[in-house]
Amino acid sequence: MENLPNCPQCNSEYVYHDGSMLVCPECGFEFQPEDVAERVYKDANGNVLNDGDTVVVIQDLKVKGASGPIKKGTKVKNIKLIEPEDGVHDISCKIPGFGSMLLKTSVVKKA
Predict the structure, then answer these.
(1) Among 38, 60, 78, 89, which residue is least crowded by beta carbons within 10 Å?
(2) Which helix (H) or strand (E) holds 88?
(3) Based on the number of CB atoms within 10 Å of its own CB, is 41 exposed (0-12), middle (13-18) or buried (19 or more)?
(4) CATH entry, 1-37, from 2.20.25.10, 3.40.50.1240, 2.40.40.20, 3.40.50.2000
(5) What is the mean pLDDT of residues 63-71?
(6) Across residues 6-10, what is the average pLDDT?
(7) Per the database record, which ranges form the Protein YjdM C-terminal domain (predicted)?
(8) Are strands 108-110 and 55-57 parallel, antiparallel or unpaired?
(9) Looking at domain 55-110, what is its CATH homologous superfamily?
């Protein structure tokens, strides 16, 4: 039996082929097999990032509504990699003194 991915919409395991498309019988979602390929997240230096990694900010970052920027060299622990809803920010984390933030992988390096 072929190992098909779960439905990206509802996470159903009952996905089947319909021509070149994959179809979920539970929610009716149709998708291409390439659409669910595992995304690889890389930092500014090209190192692969994983959930739970510690990263360092490589440039000062202005924060709207904050009294000052996030300084270059700030260490951020226990990052969570997310699928970017806005198409840009793909790291969810908590920064000391700022709270919960979204960052781009292009402004961090692996510690």
Answers:
(1) 38
(2) none
(3) middle
(4) 2.20.25.10
(5) 91
(6) 83
(7) 42-111
(8) antiparallel
(9) SH3 Domains (2.30.30.40)
The domain ranges of the chain are 1-37, 55-110
* Average pLDDT of the residues in 32-56: 88
- Write the DSSP assignment of 19-66 as a string of letters: TTEEE-TTT--EE-GGGGPPP--B-TTSPBP-TT--EEE-S-B--TTS
Say which residue the tokens 């019988």 belong to. 25
Residue predicted with more confidence, 76 or 36: 76
Give the separation between CA 15 and CA 17, rounded to whole angstroms.
7
Q: Give the pTM.
A: 0.68
